[in-house]
Design brief:
178 residues; 5 helices; binds flavin mononucleotide; globular; 4-stranded antiparallel beta sheet
Amino acid sequence: MENIHELLVNRRSIRRYTQDEVSPEDVRLILEAALMAPTSKSSRPWQFVVVEDKEMLERLSQCKPSGAMPIAKAAFAVVVAVDPALTDPWIEDASIAASYMQLQAADLGLGSCWIQVRGRFTADNMPSEEYVQELLGIPETLPVVCIVSFGHKDEERRPCDTSKLLWEKVHIGSWKEV
Ligand SMILES: Cc1cc2nc3c(=O)[nH]c(=O)nc-3n(C[C@H](O)[C@H](O)[C@H](O)COP(=O)(O)O)c2cc1C
């Protein structure tokens, strides 16, 4: 990717992956991106669980009845957990780290998708966070914000159409009702 703007225009959520593995070097770069993400007061409250095992990916994809399908066929997924005792903007810190991983993946030509876990429920009405914590042995004091699935793209997505951006949401100087 030539520059950050081109990367942002071309990054789309990718929900279908080939069965090709992602190289350990690329997995490492994606995790490096997470670990370099900015956090409030540099508290770095996150924890990342990397899952490559196919059976575990399948079970993680059942963390909610819909919207988690991409995890099942991903080359790997990163579960983003975070410690709210360390900082109050923990959701923001975890979210930025997840986004950083997605941007690094895009730069490597890989696809990724954010799967929302926080505030969601399994088909049996169990909080998705608890389901994921139990599966992976994550302490219950560490809420799971999301799972990011990664893999080689098996679908084409159109780049973002910059002529259709919602400029009415940008207010210059002060709030302007539209
Ligand atoms: C907070 C958040 C939660 C999301 N949850 C899901 C999800 O559970 N499942 C899914 O397939 N995509 C999920 N997405 C991806 C969005 O659907 C996607 O980013 C949005 O439709 C815009 O498409 P794009 O990423 O291709 O530009 C989520 C994205 C964000 C930022």
